[in-house]
Amino acid sequence: GGWLLLQNCHLGLEFLNELTDTIATTESMNEGFRTWITTEAHPEFPINLLQFSIKFTNEPPQGVKAGLKRTYSAVTQDHLEVSNMPQWKPLLYAVAFLHTTVQERRKFGPLGWNIPYEFNQADYAASVQFVQNHLDDMDIKRGVNWSCVRYMLGEVQYGGRVTDDLDKALLNTYARVWFGEHMFSEKFCFYKDYVIPKGKTVEDYLQYIEQLPVIDTPEVFGLHPNADITYQTNLANETLSTIVSTQPKDSSTGEGETREAVVQRLADEMLEKLPPDYNPHEVKAQLQKMGAIQPINIFLRQEIDCMQHVLSRVRITLTDLKLAIDGKL
Predict the structure, then answer these.
(1) Distance between CA atoms of 319 and 329, rounded to whole angstroms?
(2) Burial class (CB in 10 A: 0-12, 13-18, 19+), 70
């Protein structure tokens, strides 16, 4: 009657087939028993296991406002006051803003990151813990060692996931521009109207976050405004493709043809237009008459072989497609 937790199952796909068979063939099972599986999206994940499972996804929130709100909803007042150094609260907010930014840039595809890195809450937690430890051990006379802070954020905590040189340069640029003594000045801002609030309680920060715009311009993340056009276009195409893929495929409305009927008709038409295969003996005889060793004829023979390969592949594919539609494949 207990719960079984299997984590990171995308690393052990072979075992999942065994797990599926075990669950499906077990005759008696306690009503309180549950199997909880965590995994990344993987194309080879057993589809049978997905079909009789309840799916949950944990996606990062969309937008700076949603990301900061989620981060600060998990921050307690004790955590906010864990250090009495004046740099603590601004640095905590800056790390939260950096965390939201690196996640949000992923939606822009290659424009955001050359490689889509899986930045997660563990990166943020490790960065915050480092900042706290650094302030606890800091010499008040010398102040914050910004070179150390920038290196840890840009090269270790978040940069440890980054493998592309240009992505690494981008991350280090964020660390250099946003983290320094200038971040405590009145004029500092991440972008226009995106500043570090001065609050004493978690509620103060949440109230400021509520005032942020719901939809962010790409310039907030250091991107050109045209990046949003690409993102919105890809999002619309993905949405429409999903809608089309979920439409009924074996029924029709009114007197129109079903999708299978259209494919069957087109396959028949293509097979009728497809020329017959080349007769190798006839081809050889014709080439010998024309002079088989001449360069132009050698080239012609190669082209005939390539064309024959195309004809055979098209004929086999269309034939198998018709058999699949009829359920005879």
Answers:
(1) 9
(2) middle
Query: Which residue reads 């606890």 in tokens?
Result: 136
pTM higher than 0.85: no
pLDDT score at 307: 92
- pLDDT of 23 higher than 70: yes
Mean pLDDT, range 288-298, rounded to an integer:
80
CA gap 139, 299 in Å, rounded: 79
Mean pLDDT estimate for the chain: 87
Structural domain boundaries in the chain? 3-52, 64-223, 259-326
pLDDT (average), residues 312-327: 90
Mean pLDDT score, 64-80: 90
Q: What is the DSSP string of 243-295?
A: HHHTS-SS--STTPPPHHHHHHHHHHHHHHHSPPPP-HHHHHHHHHHH-TTSH
Just give the CATH number of 64-223: 1.10.8.720
Instruction: Tell me the C-alpha distance between 180 and 149, whole Å.
Output: 9
Q: Quick one: DSSP state of residue 192? A: T
With beta carbons less than 8 A apart as the criterion, state whether 172 and 150 touch: yes
CB 92 within 8 A of CB 128: yes
